[in-house]
Amino acid sequence: SMANYGAPPPGQQPYGQPNPYGQPNPYGQPNPYGQPNPYGQPNPYGQPGMPGMPGMPGMGAGEMAVSITCCGKNLDKKDGAFGKSDPFLIVSKKDGAKKVQVYKSDVIKKNLNPDFKPFELFVNECGGMQNQLTWECYDWDSDGTHDFIGAFQASLDQIMKNNTYQFINPHKKPSKFGKSTKVAGEMMFLKVQTKTVAPKALPYAYDLILKAEGLDRKDSGGFGKSDPYVIIKRKDSKGPKAGKKGVHFLPVYTSEFIKDNLNPVFKEFQLTVHDQLGGSENAELSISVKDWDDDGKHDLIGKCTVTAKDFTSQQPIPLINPKKAGNMGYKNSGVLIFSKCNVVPHTGNIPRPPLAMKLKMSAKNIAKMDGLTGKSDPYLTIKGPKGTIVKTEVIQNNLNPVWNEFQFNFSRAGDHGLDNLITIECHDKDSVGDELIGSVTLTIRELTFPLKSHYLVNPHKRGNIGYSNSGLLFINAFTMVDHVMEAPVFDAYNVKIQGRGLENKDLGGLGKSDPFLMVEKEAAGGGKAGKKNLHRTNIVKENCNPQWEPFVIKVIDVEGPDAPFFLRVYDHDAGSEADLIGEVKVTIREITQSNEFTILNPKKLGKSTYKNSGMIVFSDFTPVPGAPYYSGPGATPPPMGGMYGAPYGQQPYGAP
């Protein structure tokens, strides 16, 4: 509560009083702005109004703003007994329980009587002429702590009537000499007037250039330099990783890294307001500067928090490393400066969001999986929450593979467009079960950033002594696509499955297994109670490469073409519960795109000698003759004119 800042000087509004000026409330009249001004001042709004409402700006003529010229007087010294202060001003309003910044001034270096640059406050943005605003003055510090000088509360209406206010600091220590006071200086409003301006509109984007100065040395034990790059994330409560806590910082931009440079200037880039900034200038942005390392462990140099309103200020923003904050003598790990900010105006048109992406990828120095003298046979899969989206071709016997261009559709990755989370996995193809080489999880948007390389990490090896990564993945090229080509799914399929290289479960691994396959759907919560058995095959006695009898699977039974279900292979034991050999989670659409799947036993994952429990192969997965196109939940519209889809924004398939 601002009441803590103490009583205001004579003539200044007492905080929290219902009628600040002691006059009859002029705003309770039917025509508020047409009444004689109760304060004896000229009409504060000063603009021609609509008929019947003199003094109020005409609708359509623009938006009301208040132009302000102000200065500080006799501010407290914060930089030592013989120093001064580096003051800046923040104006904010209350929005429920939150405090929302509406203006932030430049820093005036070493000045106890600063003249702030004239500025404008939009009346609507401030909550109206009578809404109480908090005016705070701080002393800028290079360590980012910014000492509080003082504050007061006043509405736009009030500063038009009273031109002097005292900054109150409730935590100010009593003076050793003279009378104790909480007053930390004064604010004088030299010129305050209303004006009609063009309605405030959010810009389309900001073209930015960032530079850093005086960064910490992170290489060669502090004797080398650093290879810095920038990561910008937006505080988000609706994205794919918001989770139970309701908050997540979503990556919106990552720069290139610059070798051996403590004062880097990064390439110009653009942040769009409607997309990357979440449609708000007040979106909280976390900016981290990291040192690129070959092992993928990229050390944090320092970070800061800003909003879009800080883009136009060229004041240095301290970069703070949380591990060093509080250490004796530590100020910061360098500073970040927006050396260029070009505001791109909105034309009223927002580009249509892309629906898919074409990618060309490669990898370097991936781990050898085929013995000490062999190499690997790598391929990539891109997975979303609904399962595998796309799978590349296999590159035989190669540790530096380059894959052909492929396309994947964003709708298969979730409901968040470019902010959908995907996992890119690199596997080694084997005749008796594929092995995971490494993976990386990121958003689709991160594939478009200037930083084009990502380390592949095997989660089962993470933490092992000497292990850092399993290779480096490169995004060589990408193209956004505004239309999709996706085949529809049929109602039912004929299925024929065989096992290959299944794990021996009998006689302690010396015998064979008696395998059968279960098609199972798990309800929310999982566990045995949540399992729904859709099909059980015949048992094939003493066979690690079984061919099970054909069966039919209906798409509606698994709840749609992109709804995951399990294929589990068990070893039958007479008189006891069947042993799980291995399992794989799949979707109908995945099976239409790939016929081989490695099965894993969850209880054995992470064991040093465990690779997999074999494979299952679909030797047949074809539509039941005469089966119609599936039309239930998650259905793809049937083809028309040989096309599976239509350009974005064009109505496909002749539907109303």
TrEMBL record:
GO molecular function, one term: calcium-dependent phospholipid binding
Domain C2: 44-169, 186-321, 346-458, 469-601
PROSITE patterns with a match to the protein in the record: C2
Domain of life: Eukaryota
GO CC, alphabetical: plasma membrane
Pro residues biased stretches: 21-41
Record SMART domains: C2
Renumbered residue ranges of the record's region Disordered: 1-56
Gene Ontology BP annotations: cellular response to calcium ion
Matching SUPFAM superfamilies: beta-sandwich domain of Sec23/24 (SSF81995), C2 domain (Calcium/lipid-binding domain, CaLB) (SSF49562)
Entries under Pfam families matching the protein: C2
Cited InterPro entries: C2_dom (IPR000008), C2_domain_sf (IPR035892), C2B_Copine (IPR037768), Copine (IPR045052)
Protein name: C2 domain-containing protein
